[in-house]
Amino acid sequence: MDAPGAEKLAPLPITQGIPFPDEELERGAPVRVVNSEGQPLPTQYTCLATWNSDLKYVKWLLIDFQAPDTRDVFLEYGNGVEPELPSCPVTVEDEASLQVSTGALELELAHGDPDFLKAVRVKSDDSWKDVLGDKNGLALYMADSRGLSFDSGAAAPAPAITIEDSGPMRASLCIKGFHASEDSRVFCPYILRIHAFAGRSDLRIFHTFVFDQDPERVSLTEIGMKLSLGLGNQLSLAFGGDHEHHSRQNCSRAEFVQMTDDEYEAILDGQPFAAGCRSRGWASCIGNEGSVAVALRDMWREHPKAIVLDEEGIDIQLMPESAGPLNLRNLWTEWPIRGKTEEELLAQMAERPTAGVSFKGFLGTADVPQNSAEGNEQSMREAKAFAEKHLQDRQVSWGDTDGDPRNNGAGLAKTHELWIDFRAESHAADEVEPWAAMIDQPPIAPPEPPYMCGTGAMRVLAAREEGVYPEVECGLELMFDKLYLEPVEKCRLYGMIDYGDLPNGHLRNDGVVYRIFQDEPGFKITDLIGWFNNEGLDMCTSLWQSFARTGERKFWALAEANSEHVEDVDTIHAHPTDAHRVGWTHYHSMLHWSGGASPSHTHPHGWLLHYFFTGNRRALEVSREVADAALRRQEPSGIYSNRGGLIRREFTDPVANLWAFYEVTWEEKYGDCARRSLDFFLSTQRESGQFPGDIFTDGERGDQARVSEAEDSGCGMECYMLYDAYRITNDPAIRKAIIAVADWILREKYYLTDMANGGGGITDMSVPAAHLAHAYQLTQDDRYSDALREALDQFPDQAQQYADMKARVVFRSPLTTQQFLAAALTVVGD
């Protein structure tokens, strides 16, 4: 059990994903949680994935229970296990209306009605009291820069309401609809997921909006949801401040506004009442007819936010009007000027007086070959001086920069998590505080890392173990702390749109730029080099692997935040003019949305781990969008189409996505395309054992291969594609291909790196290491393990260089290094 800040609150609702080895737990077999004394706890269990298409054995199981304290618990399963039921199980009835009851709370929803929430009843002695007000119970709303307002009320189409989970411990509803103006103009989809828990009066709510408009015409000015309540009068209001709560009795209106990550203000009846830095994200309202408490998870991290309380109810402002408009255009309206020398830059600036400048590729007078892709520290210091002298009135970038106005925030989404607790009696502040702490850092109960990694449910993965390569493990943790956790806090990488993303790790001088600017006032590294979004190696997977290997909460927190950000903000979910862009993630760039839609940088693997560990259905929903995007791009022959994307990952990564999603759903439309595409890929393997650097589909039916002469060690997710496909099919042709690639890596000694001569160091080893580890698993040939051991020995000396930001591509390095270690230590960890 890991429940920071919630020791004073019990029972704690836990929703936790558990992996199982193949042939260990039959689907449908009884499961229960017991405490340290062996006493059974009421348990709900749901199979999220099976090992094979026969659906016989569980791969991932989702457990719901409520822990009476923060001591460790145990999972029992199999013969002789009898699940315990709660005294007040959740019930769901879907007849004339949809009704959910927890024993302490009743919800009533109506199908076919935009005003879908009809009643929220709380237990009051022996009776039930409806706490909804006279107006529409729940209204989701948005406003735009044209002065138009939209909501989910009477003018909107009736939403679709489905039951996603229905068990004794937890039920969840999914409500999908649209906002609309008073004259019925439909605007921006919404998704509302509501979770109810056995015996509890609080609801866990996920609010998602999708921006499906043209950013050149529309920007957003307000986003939120209003809940009409009938709590009576004589209100007592309270807010969770940074060090103490703020409260006042007999108020009529209160506003609690988190403006930035370190500034909030409370206003009571129009007058300033309290101020502070990082609020604890909760507010409560007590009237003579009932009370309510609301907690916004990550309120200060995802600023701006506001909670308004008055006699009419609660207004949860996910983006307050006072914050100013959310502009989702590409602010780089021209392609940037690039040059290797100051003379080249000045010449182009004279020809293009309004264009910005990108220093990616700038060499200056540094002693580097003129064909170098990027310069060195001297180059960057010269660039800084050049910018200060010549670029005061121009946009300046040091990283990937895209000036195509078509690359914008159309299709962006954002999900917020909030909890609302309804009661007939009063909420005491000393009760709300630990409740809000639980929401901000939810309790988790993962198995021990050796168990999780040993199941094989996360491919080739070794747990961190005491005494096993300790210098390597210390080096990796140092890189995470210095390159992710510290920059996020130092640069204040927070905000509704930004939180969860990381600095762009796709330039060789990212560490140099950080070091030479870090003492400047208002320093924010992403203003200089942009945002990472994702990489061809799937950074989200690396973060979840880091958690599974260590069990440390800091990795869980980073993995969850990053997954939620990339799933929503960096991925295109709708488009007003080009539906083919839906399902792809934006390439690294200065803005989250200014990079092109990139098949090779779109990966559901980490998002599926997010789903498996947490049960978050938004992650599964977006993963399906990605798999469907690949299906839409089939050739007439049924092979995934890549007519022009350079580097073979533009072909292999979408195919890897199909295999990954097929493993979750076993829907043959994904498996069929994946098989055909893999056969096409295998046909391009050369006698050397390696694959061409570029692989294109060609010919009338797209079943002819056009390839480049180049060979390389592997890229993107092809190692996952081959691993998953072989596990599913046991096809000897795939086994042969994996071994042939590994043998090529051995012959070319690609497992060794040379940082001194400009090599990428151990961070370049993630894909070769995966191939070598897979080959070792298939053959037990010590040549592969010896190569991995030799590569591991290089790492401790390199780790400090990365942590000190004195190597190249430092902001990518912890994630690619994690993937390398995950594979290598599985083979040589003993």
Question: Care to describe what's here?
Answer:
- This protein folds into four domains: 12-77, no CATH class; 93-327 and 411-440, Beta-galactosidase, Chain A, domain 5, CATH 2.70.98; 342-394, no CATH class; 449-828, Glycosyltransferase (Alpha/alpha barrel).
- The protein is an alpha+beta fold and 830 residues long.
- It has a nine-stranded antiparallel sheet, covered by helices on one side.
- β10 and β11 form a beta hairpin.
- The chain has 19 helices and 34 strands.
Find the count of extended strands (DSSP E, 2+ residues).
34
Helix content: 25-40%
Sheet with most strands: strand arrangement = 14-15-16-17-30-25-24-19-20
- Report the CATH architecture of the largest domain: Alpha/alpha barrel
In terms of DSSP E residues, the strand content is 15-25%
List the domain count as a whole number. Answer: 4
Can you give me a brief rundown of this structure?
By secondary structure, this protein is α+β, with helices and mostly antiparallel strands. 29% of the residues lie in helices and 25% in strands.
Notable traits:
single chain, 9-stranded antiparallel beta sheet, 4 domains, Beta-galactosidase, Chain A, domain 5, 830 residues, 19 helices, globular, 25% strand, 8-stranded antiparallel beta sheet, alpha+beta
Blueprint of the fold:
Elements: E1 12-19, E2 31-34, E3 40-41, E4 43-50, E5 58-67, E6 74-77, E7 91-94, E8 98-101, E9 105-109, E10 117-124, E11 127-130, E12 138-144, E13 149-151, E14 160-166, E15 170-180, E16 186-197, E17 202-210, E18 220-228, E19 235-240, E20 245-251, E21 253-260, E22 263-268, E23 271-276, E24 282-287, E25 290-296, E26 305-310, E27 313-319, H1 342-351, E28 357-358, H2 377-390, E29 396-397, E30 413-423, H3 429-440, H4 449-454, H5 470-490, H6 510-517, H7 525-529, H8 539-550, H9 553-568, E31 585-586, E32 597-598, H10 605-614, H11 617-632, H12 649-665, H13 668-682, E33 695-698, E34 704-707, H14 718-729, H15 732-748, H16 766-779, H17 782-792, H18 795-803, H19 813-828
Parallel strand pairs: 28-29
Antiparallel strand pairs: 1-5, 2-3, 2-6, 4-5, 7-8, 8-9, 9-10, 10-11, 12-13, 12-18, 14-15, 15-16, 16-17, 17-30, 18-27, 19-20, 19-24, 21-22, 21-26, 22-23, 24-25, 25-30, 26-27, 31-32, 33-34
Helix pairs in contact: 5-18, 5-19, 8-9, 8-10, 8-19, 9-11, 10-11, 11-12, 12-13, 12-14, 14-15, 14-16, 15-16, 16-17, 16-19, 17-19
